[in-house]
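Support request, priority: normal
Reporter: lab tech (M.K.)
Component: structure prediction queue

Hi team, I submitted a job for 2-polyprenyl-6-methoxyphenol hydroxylase-like FAD-dependent oxidoreductase from Streptosporangium brasiliense yesterday, and the status page still shows it as pending. I've pasted the exact input below so you can check whether something in the sequence is tripping the parser. The sequence length should be 399 residues. Please let me know if I need to resubmit or if it's stuck on your end.
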Amino acid sequence: MRNKNVLISGAGVAGVTLAYWLRRHGFTPTVVERAPALREGGYKIDIRGAALEVVERMGVMDEIRRERTDVRGGSIVTATGRRVASMDGDTFGGREGEDAEILRGDLTRILADLTDGGVEYLFGDSIASVTDTGDGVEVTFDSGLRRAFDLVVGADGLHSTTRALVFGPEERFVRDLGYYISIFSVPNHLDLDRWELTYVAPRRTALTYSTAKDAGAKAMFLFASEPLEHDHRDRAGQQRLVAEAYAGQGWEVPRLIDGMDQAPDFYFDSLSQVHMDRWSKGRTALVGDAAYCASPASGQGTSLALVGAYVLAGELAAAGGDHRAGFDGYERRMRHFAEQNQNLGPANVKRMVMGSRAQVWLSLKMLSLMNRMPGKERMMAKVVEPIHRAATAITLEDY
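Reply from support: The job had stalled in the queue. We restarted it manually and it finished. Here are the results:
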């Protein structure tokens, strides 16, 4: 096996999954992560289609099901709090069959535990420079540490440092969809019992939910906007943008907004996608959101990370460590799957955020009527069918 020593930037789902499979195939992975430890908590995410097969092959499906969110259902509410439509958890979340919903932090921990003792982790550090020498990669870290690796893989998300260092500035690859998203923990002042409430206004959506794993609740805000100037590390500035966007909104929005200051896990960013002609250059490759972010609106970011990491590791192993052949195989097998799932984002977000008062009224009216009609599950199945078609748009090799 050639090129055994691989540096992975990012200890999220894509990074730890890649570390597991590389180690299993005989490589020696090292993971560097800017955070001081694995990131806990996070939003609830779904594992669907081909990604289910990946976690089954990792032997953790039973543990994932034990850690499931167990959200029982969800309701759409008006500005006064009246529930106009309610659905069971799987219908509300667009799940079917064996699909699993889990908190992102729980999934990352489960996957990272599989690498315990066999993968080196460098927490509290990140890549500062990458020099491809042709025979290897010289890496300097922010801490000043210098090390040599055979290959480098960026699994460091939408705002990938690895991508910027090796492929070029972010604006060349990141496409803003015209929306912003904010997620954070809040007190469960509505006493929700594994239930989700969603409020829809023109160009503004807000929701809150509780899970079996959390005594508190989560709040999410999704809104349409022209590009906003903001610093990714300026939390106070980001919170001002969210508060301004939801000023004057009804329902529980003011109280949820008030919870931002105390939230330990406040998150804010544009709803964006990453589009690249190539996911590799020389001895460096990208995986997950760094390569083909589909945006949270797709509902497929985690599944893309799981499948992409599995395929990348497998193709490198099948090529005997030949990075050119391995990276080419990865691109060839993943390209269609990534594109199909990216296509979901722009379509889904238009159903999540209504453009006008008339659209809001019509949508609420239709949901209210559908809620009382027989066969509503079949109607919802047609809505989510594109998600499941995209989720299964790849056949996994048995590497």
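The chain has two domains: 5-41+104-174+273-345, 73-99+177-271+352-390. The radius of gyration is 21 Å. Let us know if anything else looks off. Ticket resolved.
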